[in-house]
Write a structure and sequence with these properties.
By secondary structure, the chain is of the alpha/beta class. It has 30 helices and 9 strands.
Length: 670
Amino acid sequence: MRFALAGNQNCGKTALFNALTGMRCHVGNFPGVTVEQKIGEIRGKTDCSVVDLPGIYSLRPYTQEEIVTRDYILNEKPDCIINITDATNIERNLYLTMQLLELDVPIVLALNMMDEVRANGGTVDVEKMSRELGIPVVPISALKGEGVSELIDRAIETAKSHTLPIRADFCDRNSPCHRCIHAVMHLVQDHAEAEGLPLRFCASKLIESDNDIADRLRLDANERELIEHCLVQLEAESGLDRNAALADMRYSFIESVVGASVVRCRESREHRRSVAIDRILTGKYTAIPVFLGVMLLIFWLTFNVIGAALQRLLQFGIDKLSDVVDAALTSFGLNPVVHSLIIDGIFNGVGSVLSFLPIIVTLFFFLSILEDTGYMARVAFVMDKPLRRLGLSGRSFVPMLIGFGCSVPAVMATRTVSSDRDRKMTMMLVPFMSCSAKIPIYSVFVAAFFPGRGALVMFALYVTGIVLGILMALILGHTSFRGKPVPFVMELPNYRFPSPRSVGLLLWEKARDFLERAFSVIFVATVIIWFLQSFDYRLNPVTDSSQSLLAIVGQWIAVLFKPLGFGDWRFSTALISGFIAKEQVVSTLAVLAGCDTGVLHTALPAMFPSTLAAVSFLVFTLLYTPCVATVAALRREFNSRLSTLGIVFTQCGVAWVAACLVYQIGRLFL
């Protein structure tokens, strides 16, 4: 049996999913979209799985998540829906329940956070609410595991008996809304039965002007005109917009249910504390400075203290393992080519990327804490207004900010963005944020060409990336991603202590995703680069890298960089190797210059024809395609090779144009 877990955001859905499955789950994407899908086996029950549907507030198709949830229930027809609601804010949560009841699928309502309701003096008459709604109602506390076993038993019982909701009609029989709904149901009844769609649900969606449902019902022009006539009459009789009339009908029923079965609790201590904290964290003048301070602290701990220390420790372990394997292969007398493949290709290539794992895990550890405490919801709220002017919503801010640390977790963090349009647009903007892997390149070039002015140059590079990212957002918003961001609806939950179980599960998922990429796409890419570096066009091993296939490819590509001021093949070769990891630009230049990376800054002035050419190279490095790990992450999130290649070529094109403008305009003044 398959169970669908549905509910609002921040209602404890993840905690309940973990309690149901014991963290044994498979993570993937819903077919054809980038919305994350979690499927897990229910603990202690054979042949019972639960699908964690995206957190939504309504089945009206504003966002990709709402469309995915609606289509999954309509097309996959789960045996039962487990609808989890926040019992401390039950009126808002029951609005989604009203729509789920129309789907003609067995439903069990899980009243979560009942421990908080009781602690604040509130009660819920579960039996009376069950009678009013016509479905089983089970009080639970997902975080503490209270009532979860009873919920599972009731859900299985409801699914086996295929007990449908007793009622789906919530309006006064003499109301305009009642007459309109039943008139529309009468008009589309044959179509709904032919398509296997629930009749009441179809009528509600048509009143909400859901064109997708109208198309699925294959309504002709005359039928659509009759439906529109019913809706105009509804608006005239009710004095409300058609959507408002439907919402008013649902909330009127919710008020009657809550009034009959809920004893309201007093204002909780957690709520009072949250309101007091929000005066600072969401204040007009304090919100952004506090957030920047929090993120600065997280970045410092991630990239300079905890994450950096763990990265050095892992890199030390990889280096030691590489030395041991190197010595063993040498003593064994293994073929030099195979030896080079294992050491230079696999250990050095994959190992250099694998060393980022502690950074990613540490960063997501802090971000998951901020998410679980409820702070990230405040950040999205604060940043929504400025980002909306660029065609994005507030949720896009955090992934772009993470991009200054590392593009891989930034791309992975776009899963928190609500709509498919906003998510894809955010992913395309992330590479414009200069990641920390480029800092070694900036440092070497600053020491070589701008001694004493490093801070100014670094600041200019970061600002350049941000400005071009803003311009790209405006261009994308008027071309490939036309339209407005989805309506921004988000609950600001009370501040709570994070769940160690949820944090641990998130870290495991991110680490597993990264490791899967490291030993698949990244592995293949590093082997390809090793092959190009190690052989000439006759496939003979080379001792001089200038004779390698990589150098030949670099010489072909070098022609493209002549208008940018650095047409030497060594620079194009360094840029190609930087595709594996941006730090390899520095190491490749050091190898080709015949010196150590520590003294590379002394050799660079002789390699570049002018300081202006070096600036052009820096601009191109700032903007061109991200590393292979980021490309692999983009490929996974977009679920399309063509789209991923489009991003790579777009990024390179923007980098080429920007660097060309810098060099050519600079020549006019210098």
